[in-house]
Design goal:
The protein has 158 residues and is mainly beta. The chain contains 1 helix and 11 strands; from the N terminus they run ββββββββββαβ. The strands form 3 sheets. Strands 3, 4, 7, 8, 9, 10 and 11 form a 7-stranded mixed beta sheet that branches. It has a two-stranded antiparallel ribbon with strand order 1-2. A hairpin with a 6-residue loop joins strand 5 and strand 6. The chain is rod-shaped, with a radius of gyration of 33 Å. The two termini are 57 Å apart.
């Protein structure tokens, strides 16, 4: 089949340059040897979205000293131990499971970007988004993290 040689459009009569397939004005097919492709457009079928979630266990706690009320950052490995405040040297038993109001927040490390996040207790066991990398996380209970110690950290759940 020869290419369009140029000349007036058979539909609208406007002059069209050579080697075109459609008229630039009316979009009519210029070469009568070409046919419109009858291929059907496939039907749109949305794919199901999977919500992946990474468990992020607590790595430490933010605790108020019972004597001076200053905030201390304590690692979870010190649970159940008797500790001394670095500001006033008062000693206290470190038990984050006690609901006495001294435990302000907890610390997690995002398994995706390895950056620290400070989270209030109200976000415990909830699905959140890391403010640094936008990965979906589930901040799990520190005692639940101890129970999962046998499983690999950062396990993806759905």
């Amino acid at each position: 089949m020869p290419a369009w040689p140029g000349g007036p459009c058979p539909a609208c009569g406007d002059h069209m340059p050579e080697k075109l397939i459609h008229c630039q004005n009316c979009r009519a097919l210029l070469n009568p040897d070409l046919e419109v492709d009858p291929a059907p457009v496939p039907e749109f079928a949305p794919l199901p979205e999977l919500e992946s979630m990474i468990d992020a266990p607590a790595k430490g706690y933010f605790v108020k000293c019972p004597a001076c009320e200053r905030e201390l950052r304590i690692g979870r490995q010190y649970r159940g131990m008797r500790l001394a405040c670095k500001f006033c040297a008062a000693t206290f038993q470190f038990d984050p499971s006690a609901a006495d109001g001294r435990y302000v927040a907890f610390q997690v490390v995002c398994p995706h970007c390895d950056r620290e996040l400070r989270a209030s207790w109200k976000y415990l066991n909830l699905k959140v988004i890391c403010k640094h990398c936008n990965v979906r996380l589930r901040l799990i209970d520190p005692t639940e993290a101890e129970l999962r110690a046998g499983e690999p950290e950062g396990k993806a759940t759905s």
